[in-house]
């Protein structure tokens, strides 16, 4: 891997420039989101949906006829009421969760099972870029927990409790908001997996890319395990929505906030536009029955070689299980 590639996401400034450049790169679209791509009769869970991209996704799912479950840390019930207002649908529900806290995730799965029984589509969107390292209640690093390990735990709990509607006409779908920055890390740091590390804002962006590498590797391994022998039992999708004008950088230093807000407003995509490839993967008939897919914006790409390697996927799964056993 070249140093130039590593520099793309080394700090907030270069990451922002890389995101802007990506928007002007010509792509061949994987498909087109059609008005007929709907969620009628389906239950869709969208986490991290109280603002930004997640809120836009929840609103669009509701507009397209889906029963929406918004799993959020804040904004209850006000944000759900806004989704109802913007979508014209009353079939919008909210459940509280803190993805940095393991018992909270267990409680969320329990509520999903008790109140909704099964879901048809899971859209994992929640993510953070903190200005500095913070410990979770279980002593893990917060960004590692929220951006990766919580997904591993959440999905496996949903599967264990039979929360996916696996008896429908089409396989359940899971859509994970990843990032092209997953290509930036040079290697996996297996020896320090899950170990709390101190950092400040200068390191947070590069760590964000590393945790997105873990997430992307997990999605590939998840599809590999759920869809053996070429049969698609679950459709596992991941994507990078490109740079989004959201509040994910809300913890950036105050001195940079005005400039970042201006740059985001001018150059970055609105959450509504960024939601298009997410809805496409969640609803389009084009990808029906596919075991795995990865999009960058609306273009299809291969994930990084490190994420595709079955040895990395298997080791990541093993270490994740061991870490969760240790902290719980």
Give a description of the structure.
The structure is a single chain. Strand 1, helix 3 (52-63) and strand 2 (67-72) form a beta-alpha-beta unit. The chain has an 8-stranded mixed beta sheet with strand order 3-2-1-4-5-6-7-8, sandwiched between helices. The chain has 328 residues and is an alpha/beta fold. The longest helix has 26 residues, at 201-226. 44% of the residues lie in helices and 12% in strands. It has one domain: Rossmann fold. The mean pLDDT is 90. The protein contains 11 helices and 8 strands.
Characteristics of this structure?
Rossmann fold; 328 residues; 8-stranded mixed sheet; alpha/beta; 11 helices; 44% helix
CATH architecture: 3-Layer(aba) Sandwich
CATH superfamily: NAD(P)-binding Rossmann-like Domain
- Shape, please? globular
Quaternary state of the chains: single chain
Count of helical regions: 11
Query: Which bin fits the share of residues in helices?
Result: 40-55%
Report the CATH C-level class: Alpha Beta
Determine Rg (CA atoms, Å). 18 Å
Question: DSSP strand (E) fraction?
Answer: 5-15%
Mean pLDDT: 90
Order of helices and strands: HHEHEHEHEHEHEHHEEHH
Category by helix and strand content = alpha/beta
Strand numbers in spatial order across the main sheet? 3-2-1-4-5-6-7-8
Task: Report how far the terminal alpha carbons are from each other.
Answer: 37 Å
CATH topology: Rossmann fold
Record field, number of beta strands: 8
Number of domains: 1
Flag low-confidence runs.
none
**Tell me about the biggest sheet?**
8 strands, mixed
């Amino acid at each position: 891997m070249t140093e130039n590639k590593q520099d793309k996401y080394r700090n907030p400034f270069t990451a922002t420039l890389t995101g802007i450049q990506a928007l002007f790169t010509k792509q061949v679209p994987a498909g087109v989101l059609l008005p007929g791509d709907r969620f009628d009769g389906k239950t869709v869970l969208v986490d991290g949906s109280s603002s930004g991209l997640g809120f836009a996704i929840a609103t669009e799912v509701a507009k397209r006829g889906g029963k929406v479950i918004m799993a959020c840390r804040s904004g209850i019930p006000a944000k759900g009421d806004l989704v109802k207002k913007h979508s014209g649908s009353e079939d919008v529900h909210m459940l509280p969760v803190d993805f940095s806290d393991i018992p909270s995730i267990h409680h969320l799965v329990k509520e999903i099972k008790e109140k909704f029984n099964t879901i048809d589509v899971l859209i994992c969107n929640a993510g953070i870029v903190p200005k500095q390292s913070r410990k979770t209640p279980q002593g893990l690093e917060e960004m590692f927990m929220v951006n990766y390990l919580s997904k591993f735990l959440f999905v496996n709990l949903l599967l264990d409790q039979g929360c996916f509607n696996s008896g429908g006409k089409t396989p359940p779908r899971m859509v994970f908001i990843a990032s092209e920055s997953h290509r930036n890390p040079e290697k996996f740091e297996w020896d320090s997996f899950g170990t709390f590390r101190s950092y400040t804002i200068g390191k947070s962006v590069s760590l964000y890319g590393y945790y997105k590498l873990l997430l992307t590797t997990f999605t590939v391994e998840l599809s590999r395990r759920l869809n053996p022998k070429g049969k698609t039992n679950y459709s596992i999708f991941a994507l990078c929505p490109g740079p989004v004008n959201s509040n994910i950088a809300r913890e950036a230093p105050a001195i940079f906030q005005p400039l970042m807000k201006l740059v985001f407003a001018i150059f970055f995509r609105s959450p509504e536009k960024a939601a298009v490839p997410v809805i496409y993967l969640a609803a389009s008939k084009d990808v029906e029955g596919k075991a795995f897919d990865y999009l960058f914006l609306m273009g299809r790409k291969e994930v990084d070689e490190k994420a595709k390697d079955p040895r990395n996927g298997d080791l990541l799964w093993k270490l994740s299980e061991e870490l969760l056993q240790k902290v719980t």
